[in-house]
Specification:
The protein has about 180 residues and is an alpha+beta fold. The protein is about 25% helix and about 30% strand.
C-alpha cells in the first residue's frame, strides 16, 4: 500500500553567486527527489537580506521563489534531502541567517503540525515574510497557513516590500517542469 502524497510548500532563496542558476538547479534537484512530483513554481522575487538584527540593505539582495510539490516521503527525509541540496549548491552554515548560495525552508507539509529540535511546521516565521507570501500567493491564491490565516491577508499585513525580480526571467524553471 502506497503512502498518500502530501502537498509541501518550499521557500527557496539565494543571495550569493549566480542566484537564478542556483534556484533553477535547486528546483530541478527537488523535482528529482524520490517521491516528489512538481505542483508549481512561482515567479522569482527580489528582497533585501534579513539578518538576526533586521533588514540589512548592505548585504547582497536575495532572489526568492516558492515551489509546491506533492511528496510521499517522511518530513524528516525531506529535511535531510533539502539540506543535502543546499550543500550541493555551496551552502555554508557559518552564521545563522547569514548570506548564502541557497536556502530551502519547508513551510508546510500537508496539514502536519510539528515542533521539535529538527523541524517546526508550519514554518514559524513564514506568516511574516513577504518574500515567502508573495510568490506563494502567485501560485496558490487560496493558500492558508494553519493557525495564522490566508496568505493574501498575511501578505497585506507585512506591508509587502518585495517585488518581482527585474533581472530574472518570469519563468526561469522550465527545465524543472519535465
Amino acid at each position: 500500500m502506497s503512502k498518500r502524497a502530501e502537498r509541501v510548500v518550499l521557500a527557496l532563496g539565494s543571495n550569493l553567486g549566480d542566484r537564478t542558476a542556483t534556484l533553477a538547479g535547486a528546483v530541478r534537484d527537488l523535482v528529482a527527489l524520490p517521491g516528489a512530483a512538481l505542483g508549481a513554481v512561482s515567479p522569482v522575487y527580489e528582497s533585501a537580506a534579513v539578518k538576526l538584527d533586521g533588514v540589512d540593505e548592505n548585504a547582497p539582495r536575495y532572489l526568492n521563489c516558492v515551489v509546491l510539490i506533492d511528496y510521499t516521503g517522511d518530513p524528516y527525509d525531506l529535511l535531510d534531502a533539502v539540506n543535502a541540496i543546499e550543500a550541493e549548491h555551496g551552502r555554508v552554515r557559518a552564521e545563522r541567517w547569514g548570506d548564502r548560495t541557497l536556502d530551502i525552508d519547508i513551510i508546510l507539509f500537508g496539514k502536519l503540525v510539528l515542533d521539535d529540535d529538527r523541524l517546526t511546521l508550519p514554518h514559524p516565521r513564514a506568516a511574516e515574510r513577504d518574500f515567502v507570501l508573495a510568490p506563494w500567493g502567485d501560485i496558490d491564491a487560496d493558500a492558508i497557513i494553519p493557525g495564522r490565516g490566508s496568505v493574501r491577508d498575511l501578505l497585506a499585513a507585512t506591508g509587502n516590500m518585495v517585488r518581482r525580480a527585474a533581472d530574472a526571467p518570469s519563468a526561469p524553471f522550465e527545465g524543472a517542469r519535465q
